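Sample intake sheet
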Amino acid sequence: MCEAGQLGKDVVAERTNLGWSKNRSELPTVSPPAATGNAGPQFEGKVGAFYLLSLLISSEPRGPPGATIRTVEFQQRASGRPLDDVIIQATNADGSAATLEIQAKRSLSFTQGDVEFRDVVARIWRAACKPEFATTRYELAVAIARTTTRIERSCQEVLHWARQLPDGTKFAAHVNRRGFSSDGMRDFIEVFRANLLAANAPTDDDTVWRLLRRLQILVFDFEAIGSDDEHRVRERARLTLISEQANRAADLWPVLIEHAGACARAGGALERAAVVTPLTEQYGFRFDRRADLRLVDDRLAEARIAHSMRLMTRWAGCDWAGLSLSTKPMRSLKQHRILHITGAPGVGKSAIMKHLALRLQPEGRIIVL
């Protein structure tokens, strides 16, 4: 008997054991998935709403620093987007196009037995096969609600190394050097390589490096009690509204989540006007036009003593990208906006600061004062 047929018999038997009648009219009413939904779509809606906030103020989206957001798209697999949950279309400072594809997963373990991560890697490879992947700024990301020490210490560190090192050969040499990298980092790369093989993709060092340097793991902690990320988005919502409506920021955030979910169910795409119009007409929100500070950002970026930043990431010919620093500062930054690093002279405060800045560089702009 086929598996589906056996499953049908099991379901009938279970209903009989529960005392359910075979008469359809007497079966309990079950709401359709679109009406109930599970935590996965809810998390995806919050990630989408986060980027809709960026769209409302035409700001730099998290993921491609220096770019200006143009549209937020949802569920675009039919349009050829392998990582299809949330797609950000943006414009770089030089006017060229930037794309960020995001797959939203409440949790991933990034281990060999993680079937969902295997699917994500297959999607990454399909995205990498597109011609524009090699010719444009094309970033890929996994959005997760929960992080772990392994993710921060191993997975995020691997992605940081891939961006800092110039080619696949040097990347592989760093990773394979015992005592220089960790077993957890090597394990993550081997899982990634095995998942590429399962997707019939090349697994050579250059391909692995080329894909990992385009990948980001973005943590959106929207589920914890007293979530700081939830607090931040409400503060950001307040800044989008005119001063007279600042007290309505707490109302705007759930409306944006609902708006993102509705657009996702239709596989839609939103420009700023398509977001502002219904929020204004249906809910009475009024939005402020923030001053364009991109020129100021550019000046600050130019003045950040970039040469010193590069010099201070090297010591005795050794690249700081190869040194595993404590993950405690990263965990602290997940919970608080400001991190105060203290310690005696010479203990490595500057090194930790620069390591954190470089780790977070793919998500946003670094300013050094």
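Comment: Strands lie at 68-74, 86-91, 97-104, 137-144, 215-219, 269-271, 314-315, 318-319. Residues 294-360 form one domain.
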